[in-house]
Each structure stands twice: as structure tokens, then as C-alpha cells.
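Regression check, manganese (II) ion case 350:
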Amino acid sequence: MILLLKREAPEGADRELLRAAARLGVPGRVLSGSWGRQAVELEEPVAGRALRLLTASPFVEETLGVASAHPLADAEDEGVVRPVEVGGVLFGGDALVLAAGPCAVETEEQVEQAALAAVRAGAKILRGGAYKPRTRPSDFQGHGIPALRWLRDAADRHDLLVVTEALDERSCGAVAEWADIVQIGARTMQATALLKVAAKCGRPVLLKRALSATVEEWLSAAEYLLDGGAPGVILCERGSRSFETATRFSLDVGVIAAARLRTHLPILADPSHPAGRRALVGPLARASIAAGADGLLVEAHPDPSCARCDGPQALLLEDLLPLAQEMAAVGGAVGRTFAVPRAARAAAGV
Ligand code: PEP
Ligand code: MN
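Current build output:
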């Protein structure tokens, strides 16, 4: 981004502006010569408050090449979250949030058991796929509407919110009817037709980061939702594809921290999909919270050995409480809180 100064700007106004930019954490350099007046080049991205303050200088006449591609998703002030409230649950406040449940909704009883375990661990949101994006057409694709009903009923019995994926424009309406939050999966993060429909479905949207999306692309996808009128957008990092095979995907804690600076949107982390196996979920969950995530979206199943989808990475239901305790412990170290219900603490003898 280039700031062109007024011709009447006093000598040295360019260096003065550069110092102001540096104080705002924006590096840059003085441009000499060809502009015919003083000019300063700032490194992208410049957004929010920094952009406003710098362009408000009385010496600045014109800005070139500003335009963030996602002004609605950009942070007003670096690192400052604008919390999103959904049905009494605050995403992006001091308190961390936990969403838990099976990868796929399989039976009414399975979601009931998961909901019970989730609420006992302090989760506020029940997750579970009714429409599953599967690699192979022969894989279980989800039960659709009946699954949405089972999720809703279980969530209502336990005072939980429901988050579940809308796979395409067609399923978005049904998902919005039964769920509190519409999830857009990693594979469809850039399905712009779906984003446009999801934006108008009347529900807040949880937007997973695609397997190889840059932060720029992720925020641009969020911009589609915000621009289309979505009443709230919550981001969720779920790992990207890398050369590594010891994990299923590479959870990008760097991206959690970097995105935190650039957007006001709350950011959750899904430690389950990058882990690929149960034993790695805890460490990735801890790392996510330490990196600044506002909460977790975690897979848990009453009997992972029989799961129709992602069994190896599903926590046992009894693993949810220890996970919640770790959220409270790591969260406490980074200025966040997580309330583990008293009954659960008592039952666990803590
Ligand atoms: C999910 O959370 O159910 C899911 C399918 O995740 P992702 O889109 O991140 O693969
Ligand atoms: Mn899954």
C-alpha cells in the first residue's frame, strides 16, 4: 500500500508518517523520486485502526492499492475479538467454549449419550454430522433429516446448542431449520455458491479452514458470509495438508495466532481431524488454547470402535471431562477461563 503525500506537506513528513506506522507495528519505507512528491510504501496488510489512523494524517492525499479483500472480517484493532453470541453462548469472550459430539450422527441413542457426556464436561454445543462429506461414495453419507432431529432433541434435553454441517446449498435450509449454527466444512470453504446461501440462512456460521487455504483465503471466505448478511461468523482451524503422515493433517497453531491478529472473528480449533488418532487430541487441544483459540470442536463417540466415520480420532465419552480440565488449566495460563461443572468435578474427585 502506498501513501502519497500532499505536495505542500513539509519536508520530512514522509519519515514522520513512517515512524507513526512503525509505532502501529506496520513496517514500510520512504519512496523517492518518481512520484513527484513525498510517498511512503507500507507493507500489507494494513487494516482496521492502523489504516484509519495513517490515512487520517493531514499530509496524506491519496492511498494506492489499499483495499483489504475482506474489510468486514478485518480486525478494527489488531488482536481484538468481537465476540459472537449464539443462544446465550458467547464465542470469543474470556470463557472458552467446548463443542463436542460424534463425527457423524448414527443413532438417536448415540447422540443422546454424547450430549449427556458433553454437558457433564461443560460443553455448550453438541456437534455431529447429518450430511457427511466423505472421500468415497461408498462411505456412510449421513442420515440427513432424521439425524438433524435426533441432534435437536438431544441438545434440547441437555440445554445445548447444535452445530452441524451444511454440505451444499440444498441441505443448508434444513440445517438452518434444526441447528443453531451452520457449519461449512473444510472441503467447501471456497464453495462460493454455498457461502452465499449460508450467509442468508439466518443462522451464524462456523467456517472451517480449507485443507490448503491461506489466512487471506479463509478471511475472504468469511467475507462472503458477512457480506451476505450472516448474523455471526466463527472460524475454525482444523489442520492443513502437509508432507507429514504421522498426523492426519497438520494443525496450524501459527495460523491460529496469525489470524487472531488480523480478524475480529472468534476462532475455534478442531484438534480431532488433524490428530487422526485419539492419543494426539489432548496435546493438540492444549496447543490450540495456548495459541489463542477461543474454544474447541471435538469428536467424541460412545463406542469409537463401531463408529461409521473417524472412529480412531474420536475421544471416548469419559475422555471429555479430562479434556475440559485441561482446557481450564491451559486456558488459565493464557488469561481464559473454562468452567468444568461442579457435579463432574465431584464425580471425578477433584
Ligand atoms: C466435521 O467437523 O464434521 C468435518 C467434516 O470436518 P472438516 O470439514 O474439517 O473435515
Ligand atoms: Mn470427522
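Comparison notes: The first helix runs from residue 13 to 23. The pocket of phosphoenolpyruvate (ligand 1) is lined by residues 103, 129, 133, 165, 185-187, 208, 238, 270, 273 (CB under 6 Å). No diff flagged against the previous build.
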